[in-house]
Each structure stands twice: as C-alpha cells, then as structure tokens.
Specification:
With 358 residues, the chain is of the alpha/beta class. Helices cover 41% and strands 11% of the residues. It contains twelve helices and nine strands. Strands 1, 2, 3, 4, 5 and 6 form a six-stranded parallel sheet that branches. Helix 8 links the parallel strand 7 and strand 8. Helix 4 packs across helix 12 and helix 7 packs parallel to helix 8. The longest helix has 20 residues. The protein is globular. The relative contact order is 0.15.
C-alpha cells in the first residue's frame, strides 16, 4: 500500500502557481514570456495548491528570455513575488532553508522557492550571486535553451562547456550555497559544471535521453554524474518524455524508473514544469499555444520537440490530483512507500539540506 499524500513532503522542483483560466493569465499564455506580475494567485489557485498536497514549489522568476533588461527585470520579479507572499501570509511562505520546507508542511502553507531559469541577470558580475542570494534566491539555472555568458543551452549548436566566466559563477553559487541547476543546459556545460562544483548540483526538470532522444532530455552520463556527486534529478511532466510529443502519465513513470535505475532511488524526484490548476478549456488553449510556439521559434528560444499540436504538459497528470495519480502509478509499478516518499519530496529536501544547510 502506497503512502498517503497528506503525510508526505511533496516538493515540485520546478513548477508554477497560477490560475491559467483567469483572463490575465489566459491572455499572457500566448505571449513569448509570462511575467510574474501577470500571474493570477487567486482563491482557486491557492485552494488547488493546498488540495494537491504540494509542500513547496520552485517558481521561476527573473529574466529567462525576451527583450527585458535582465538585471533590472529580475529585481522587479523578486519584488513582485515578495508582494505576492506578503499578500497571502496564511497560505504562502518563502523557503530560505531546508528547515523551512518542513515548517511549511507543519503549518500547512505552500513554500515558495525563488529560482532562476537563466543566469543572464548575473551578466559579467559573479558578485551579483551574493546579491540575489540575499534577496532570497535559492536556485540559479545556468542557461536556458540558448547560449549565454556562462555556457551553452541545450539548443546551442556549439555544445561548449562552461565559459571562464561560467566557472566563476559556479564558484560564486557554491560560496553562497545557491543550488546550481543544470536543466536546459547543453551536455558539455552540464558535465563540466557537475565536475567542478564544490557542492552537489541538480537537474530540476528533465527527462531521460536514453528513452527519448531530444536535447532537453539528459544522457545517462549526465544523470549518473550528477547523482554520483550527491545531486538531484527531477523528472518533468512534459511532452519531451514521449517521442510523439503526446506524452502520458505512463511515459513520466518510465522516465522516473529509468532515472532511478541510473541514479539510484536517493537522487530522483519531480519537477513538473507546470501549474497545479488545470486549464479548463483545452480547445481554446490550442490557439494561444500555436501563437506562443511560433513566437518562441522566432526568438530562437524553443527546444526540439516543442510543437503547436502537442500540449506543453501531460494531459492525464494535471490538476489537484496530479501527485496522487503519480503515487498510484508508482505503487502499481511495485515501488515501496519509502521509495515513493523519496521521489515525491524527501530527496529534494535532503539535497536542500546538503546545499542550503538546515
């Protein structure tokens, strides 16, 4: 019998808090970038998050792509999230330490982890890592899909490793005890960062390239190296887990199983890369999706496998029961309640202890 979701620490290593059905959020979903001030944190958003059993979510803030000035936009985004949390003190709390994750569970709040999906805001000043850490940022992903000043993303054709500046940024992240997230990175950038980092690193939302050969998925070599250094790998609920793009919950389970086989059960978790509140009108969403995919392709920011005819989420792992459904499927697969507890959140919690301290 699998563990009860209510008893587990559930950490989404990359997710969202938003009501995508609200007018502001729905209109923003067709844009190249949805900024944090376009999110809808309303009664349904919060009720759904609580009902899902999630304990903490790594939310994306700051510059990811587009025409924003990276540094100033990132500071604005941090202020926006500070205001969101301040406006909902009974429901939300910022996560600064591993102990805060346990405290969020105890208090029945949703823990919000500040994370970047691009180190572009650091620009050529590694000392900014300390500034961001002081503002509550706990995770910095080195690159998005493109190349930036620290290394190559998964879609950069050169597949370089880290730049000299990138090595300085990794060192600064280690010094400030900020997680080095290698999601979206190119293979050589990932491998080099994992090798040189003085602290464990993570790939917070990915799939397994051995199962589906797409650039956004990680090779066994990358997965194994990250795990061998004490790190964490989160499997996403994304179309990249099926070669057709039409991914199902069963595909997500296969990627989790493969990651556990490669990394061991102490290093694998989940990073859905999606919201908890489900889109109600999927037919209406298709038109917005086509517009967004076209803009991402025009900007050179899309990944191989992004298409207008596939949703950027797994249809049968949506809504308030997504984590319960995953527990059920892992239980059916013969996973013990102990292993399921690790995958749902305990492994990320232990990784956080190693990097952030308790």
């Amino acid at each position: 019998m699998s563990a009860d979701i209510e008893d587990l620490i559930v950490v989404n290593a990359l997710g969202g808090l938003d009501n995508p059905n609200a007018p502001a959020s729905a209109s923003a979903s067709g844009a190249l970038v949805q900024t944090s001030d376009q999110l809808t944190i309303d009664e349904r958003t919060l009720a759904d998050a609580h009902a899902s059993g999630v304990t903490a979510i790594n939310v994306t803030l700051g510059y990811t792509l587009g025409d924003f000035p990276p540094y100033r936009h990132t500071l604005d985004e941090i202020r926006t999230w500070d205001a969101i949390i301040a406006a909902h003190p009974r429901d939300l709390m910022r996560i600064d330490t591993a102990a805060d994750i346990a405290e969020a569970k105890r208090q029945g709040k949703i823990g919000i982890i500040y994370g970047f999906q691009n180190a572009a805001a650091v620009e050529d000043r590694p000392e900014r890592v300390a500034e961001f850490a002081g503002l509550g940022v706990r995770i910095i992903q080195l690159t998005y899909n493109q190349a930036n000043q620290v290394g190559d993303g998964s879609m950069a054709p050169g597949n370089r490793g880290l730049t000299p500046l990138g090595r300085q940024v990794v060192e600064a992240l280690n010094e400030q005890r900020v997680m080095v997230d290698l999601s979206h990175s190119g293979e050589q950038t990932c491998l080099e960062a994992a090798r040189i980092s003085a602290q464990p690193v993570s790939i917070n939302h990915t799939g397994c390239r051995a199962l589906v050969d797409l650039p956004r998925n990680k090779t066994d070599e990358e997965l194994r190296l990250v795990a061998s250094k004490g790190g964490f790998v989160g499997i996403y609920f994304m179309p990249f887990v099926n070669a057709s793009g039409h991914a199902t919950a069963a595909d997500v389970v296969e990627h989790i199983v493969h990651a556990v086989d490669v990394c061991g059960e102490d290093h694998v978790g989940i990073g859905t890369d999606g919201t908890i509140t489900a889109i109600d009108d999927l037919d209406g969403y298709r038109a917005l999706l086509a517009e967004q995919v076209a803009q991402r392709q025009a900007a050179g920011a899309s990944a191989a496998g992004e298409r207008a005819d596939t949703f950027p989420f797994v249809v049968d792992l949506r809504g308030v029961d997504q984590f319960r459904e995953l527990v059920r499927l892992l239980d059916e697969r013969g996973y013990s309640s102990t292993r399921i507890e690790k995958i749902l959140g305990l492994n990320f919690h232990n990784y956080a202890k190693a990097v952030w301290g308790s």
